[in-house]
Amino acid sequence: MKNLLEFLAKYYHWFLFVVLEIVSMVMLFQYNSYQGSVWFSSANVLTGKFFEWNSSVESFFGLVQENELLTTRNVYLERQVKQLSEKLVEATGDSSFLKRGQLEVLNEYKLIPAKVVDNSIASRENLITIDKGSADGVRKDMGVACGTGIVGIVYMVSSAYSVVIPVINSHSNISVAIQDRGYFGYLQWNGGASSIAYVEDIPRHAHFRLYDKIVTSGYSSVFPPGLLVGKILHVYNSADGLSYRLQVELSTDFGNLRNVCVIDDALMQERLKVLRAAQDSLKAKE
Q1: Nearest alpha-carbon partner for 245 in 193, 203, 214
Q2: 103-119 tens-digit pLDDT
Q3: How far is CA 206 from CA 96, 181, 184, 245, in A?
Q4: How far is Cα 3 from Cα 113, in angstroms, rounded to an integer?
Q5: What's the angle, vertex CA 250, arms to CA 247 and CA 254, rounded to 5?
Q6: Is the backbone of residue 13 left (phi > 0), alpha (psi -120 to 50) or beta?
Q7: Could you give the dihedral angle defined by the CA atoms of residues 214, 196, 119 and 32, in that order, rounded to the nearest 10 degrees?
Q8: CA pair distance 65, 71, nearest whole angstrom
Q9: Distance, CA of 161 to CA of 130 (rounded, Å)
């Protein structure tokens, strides 16, 4: 003990220096937004590489469950495609029509596959980092989806990584609709379970049932129409009593998210540019 005290007394100024350096760094990054964003952003290369390595280890242990999910999903999709193909041929009497239609749809949408290298579900401002960036064609405001539904919207892009604002972020606000019903509202998440979100502003005259599917409406410039979001679990009245508030079970399992696709749709990007130009024009007039 005596030797320890002598050692601390002899070199206390070095320990004091280290402590002050740590305090100054914490204050610098915590109270200065620019420095903080540069340091803490998971889009930078160093933290991105670390997250990618960590995600690879986690992915190894989750391969069995993921492969089972993908196999089941592929079987379901193949059966659905076969049924739709047969119905389309019966309705049109032209088997070549199906091939032309599929090619047109594939030409309209370009999908950029990516892996999730960092993911949070416990915060009100959850973020997801993926291993594709501007060098791969990813741009801000692109939609992101996985095999079971929508994931979120690209928020920040570097050359090799991108940060996504997922559905389970309090700032997320996505236009959705009740499938085959035509009524639309806005999907929001206010914290809590990562499997539950709410659709606001469904009109009082809307007709629907529990477990009806919620899909993207196509009214935004980010997601094409018809992408699965979830299903209705419960119906509430809005705070003002003028509309319905739907509790939705999300189809995407954010706690086990590994592989995603970024939706690169040239038509959606063009609509987004027109919308931004209109907004800038209105601001200029004000």
Answers
A1: 203
A2: 343 346 788 889 999 99
A3: 39, 8, 9, 12
A4: 60
A5: 135
A6: alpha
A7: 110
A8: 10
A9: 6
C-alpha distance from residue 151 to each of 41, 45, 162, 174 (Å): 20, 23, 14, 11
Segment holding 96, helix H or strand E: helix 95-108
| C-alpha to C-alpha distance for 44 and 142, rounded to whole angstroms | 19
Distances (CA, A) of 56 to 47, 49, 60, 281: 14, 11, 6, 46
Q: How far apart are the first and last CA of the chain?
A: 73
Which amino acid is it at 50?
F
The sign of the CA dihedral 232, 235, 239, 243 is positive
Task: Note whether 118 and 51 are within 8 A (CB).
Answer: yes
Give the model confidence (pLDDT) of 188-226 as tens digits: 999 999 999 999 999 999 999 999 999 998 887 788 888
pTM given for the model: 0.65
Q: Which amino acid is at 239?
A: A
Q: Of 128, 188, 170, 135, which is closest to residue 153 (Cα–Cα)? A: 128
Given this model, what pLDDT does residue 102 score?
Answer: 39
In the chain, how many H helices and how many E strands? Answer: 7, 12
195 closest CA partner among 144, 230, 241: 230
Percent of the chain beyond pLDDT 70? 64
Measured distance CA(266)–CA(273) in Å, rounded: 11
Instruction: At 199, list the tokens.
Output: 């659709």
Element (H, E) at 269: helix 266-285
Asked whether the predicted pLDDT for residue 143 surpasses 70, the reply is yes
The one-letter amino acid at 124: R
